[in-house]
## 1
Amino acid sequence: MSSTDPQSGSMPKPGDTQAGAQAAARSAERDAIHEALESRLMAIEAAARFHHVELDRDELRYPKGTTPSPAALVEWVRDGGLWCRAIRMRFGQLLKIEVASPVILLLRDGSAALLTTVDPARNIVWLKDPRAASGDPPVAVDELRLSQVWSGETLLLRAIRELTDENAPFSFLWVWGLVRQEHKLLRDIIYGSVAVSFLTLVPPLMVMTVIDRVLTYKSLSTLSLISLFFLLAVVYETLLGHARRKITFIIGARVDAKITLHVFKRMLRLPLDFFERQQAGVITFRISQVNKIREFMTGKMMSTILDLVTLIVVVPVIFFIQPTLAWVTMSCAALIGVIIVIFIGPVNRAVGRWTSAETQKSSVLVETLHGIRTVKSLALEPQQREMWDRRTATSVQLRLEASEISNWPQTLIHPLEGFMSRGVVLLGAAFAILDPGTVNPGLLIAYMMISSRVASPLANMARVLDDFQEVRIAVGFVQSIVNQPPESVNPSAGLRPRFEGHIEYNKVNYSYPGTKTKALDGISFEVPAGTMLGLVGKSGSGKSTITRLLQGITRDYEGFVKLDGNDLREINLAHMRRSFGVVLQENFLFRGTIRENIIAGRPGMTLTDAVRAARLAGAEEFIERMPNGYETWIEEGSPNLSGGQRQRLAIARAVIHDPRLLILDEATSALDPESEALVNANLTRLGKGRTMVIVSHRLTSLTECDQILVLDKGKVADMAPHLVLVERCSVYRQLWLQQNRHLDSSAARASGPAPVLAQGD
Ligand SMILES: Nc1ncnc2c1ncn2[C@@H]1O[C@H](COP(=O)(O)OP(=O)(O)O)[C@@H](O)[C@H]1O
Ligand SMILES: [Mg+2]
């Protein structure tokens, strides 16, 4: 068991000053807290490992300098793909657990213990210290001893089995499952609805009594009693209605939060290819359909279900009041049902056509906004507007058609509904005339009032049907995004080695989906750890594809890519990408300060790290000249920075965590010569102590590389240092001469060797 006395072993020495003693005590306390946290994390990791899940400490999110809350720990485990809950237990409950998988007791001092077995007969539990060696036996602990260190906080872990889990496919039922999780609130709503239904029976029955008894016998006392009842019923109905709506809002908000979080999480897990294949507009539109589903489920659908509850209460009553009329009412109801069913198909199809037109329309909007610079500078406004006009016209047209069709069931239902609530009165009056004594006027009016309660829910169902079609389509849209295969099935699976930076490609073939030509054709090469590799070749020769494979963006290639001898496909993706730095030609800077953009949310990084990274990237000097230095605000898309400045910030962001592998894919290609020279001057410094892969079509920026790989139509043409390539590789020499015509080739040769030699030592 872990020690409960954080001060033990580090008492201040007698000679210390008071302040010194306090400092020592504080630092001892910090050590103890750190140690306890370590034990807690180890316990959780061990429990997760039991289910074959490796948790990544970088994914544990909690405010620095604090102890992570049980909620943060639960979130961490869930992110790893396991079921987890924090609960408070008593010793008695602990004894009843079937310890099928590890149970973690969170101890008062911040550490943790693993529960291995329980022995209810002897009233003891067996605990294991997570820091103990694996061979150490567990310790028996009784209730008294445990209560001294444990307040009842417990973490339970399991493999996921339920339907409403992280990995279940998105569907209508899945969302409904979320709604059902709120069963306690739902139950309250249903009770409330049943009560309200009974209360709504009060006024008609009263009217009946008033007319048949009070008016006939002129009884004032009965009237006042009835009035009191009436008042009470109204008050109750109002309050219950208020509560019912409130609970509905609460359920709506909760379900909304759950769906939104889930959908975003799932979207982020999709591979990059998916986003490259799909238009951003289409994705945005489809994801936004989630709102429709949630609105429907917690709004119209809920109220329809509640209306049905009302029917269960009301229908027996109308049969009780007047069976013949009740049969007439129910026949009308059946007719309404038939009309609803007949129109399901046509409405469905019409709404489907309209929605797909709507998708097309919104993709024009998004495309125009994304490319607004190009649209403006090439004066493409008329074209875009024309396209928008056309798509809008189509959409409006289809919308009209859809409304036209869905108008019919409502139109047909309307007279039936009217007959159910009012026409039956005429029928009842006829009964009264033909067979006097069976139907009183009061009863007739009461029947009319109650039967309208049967008619309106049914008519509402017809309207809900309309929305239901839209929602089904919305579900389809969300499914088409969210149910795509994720980048890795189990985000926590895979090796998490410490990288040295040795890269090896072995007979790698790759074609992009839907293309016939090979983007990479039998690529084999090797890069020793800590060296610089240059990648050159004509546009489209496969340079970017090589770096994409290296980042694990595309994983369905043939052959092997190995990092330090480990097959790339075996390595945990998130871990790998976190250990890399990547700078592309276009880099996105997020809204926020320069410091925040460099740190990019990496846990544990401070301003000092940001300054160090900025210096390495050659960005320090311009950042310091900015009005607020590192706190200067950058807008989305960073309009207040030049291309070179943006690029240097991107490099700083890529190297802040000191990656073992740095990939620059045409990072300087869009820069002006001055900015390019600034970045290139730093390359050797950037590359110190790590492997670098630099893609550039400007050969002068690669002369310092240890090796240059020349690609030609997806094949390796040659691989050697610059000087050798100029001599022996025709593709390279051609490129070099094209770009350096102004230089005499001997001068080029003279400028080449110096840096390479300098690099060598
Ligand atoms: N997303 C993609 N889908 C289909 N083909 C692609 C895709 N990206 C690149 N390609 C093709 O793969 C080949 C290599 O592309 P790439 O590696 O980007 O070349 P480079 O970076 O050398 O200019 C090219 O022929 C290109 O047309
Ligand atoms: Mg490229």
## 2
Amino acid sequence: MNLILLGAPGAGKGTLASYLIEKMGVPSVSTGNILREAIANGTELGQKAKAFMDAGQLVPDSLVIDLLKNRIAQDDCKKGFILDGFPRTIPQAEALDTIASIDCALSLEVPDEVIEGRMTGRRVCLKCGATYHVVNNPPKTEGVCDVCGDTLVIRKDDKPEVVEQRLATYHAQTEPLVAYYEAQGKLKAIDGTQGIHQTEAFAVAALGL
Ligand SMILES: [Zn+2]
């Protein structure tokens, strides 16, 4: 099964993808990883991509699509793959349709206010890497790491204005993909607010695994 995961940043796609990789026995294909590998290996496409990045430009969709086409032609994708971080726009989805047959787009639905609560409540310890949440997983003493006693901080990505900006970008550019795949009869939407295990159970049922 060739699967796309859709959902806002912070909806829990990464956690669900890790589970589905095991459950389905297929690889996760990340365009970010493919780009990094191609550049590290100095392939022709990698060199082209690097030239754009060195110039401070976005790598064009057509180049990403060529890289993706090579990647999904490899043996480990014969049983299928889970696309991670792509497509993010309608033009990317249209280009993807020319190189792959997508069986299902699984949309992980979490309201913005729930995502904002999850992300803005995160606290991390920069010294030891421990993570906390002010409501769901608070440290014993407010603002202090249980493990090493260092002061907890809010990561830049978790600040309310950054979270709001990322959600706005998602709604403008990526959410239209839900309608795109629905029109193709490939959309399955599941509730992502009921905890990790329930989300996994919803996904298994929706995908008929
Ligand atoms: Zn710590």
